[in-house]
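# nightly structure sweep
# worker-07 picked up a monomer target from the shared queue
# config: single-sequence mode, recycle default, output format = structure tokens
# input follows
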Amino acid sequence: MRRLRESALRARSVLEREKQPLSEGCRALIARDVAAALSEYFALTGEVRVRVERAEKLKITLEAEAESIVPFASFGGEL
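# output follows
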């Protein structure tokens, strides 16, 4: 969970610095961070896709595909 929180904080920091629509490089950075966090829980089969729409508030859409959930025993403890 710590990694997810760190990724979320990093993504928020990047989004706050951006005043214009996100550049491709910025979306790639966010997608890479999200993929790293998701891969701790899922066996991803492709790239994570990020879309950010600006209106009154930001609408953030993440898409990813996975073939399975990582076995819970590999987390090193009970959930």
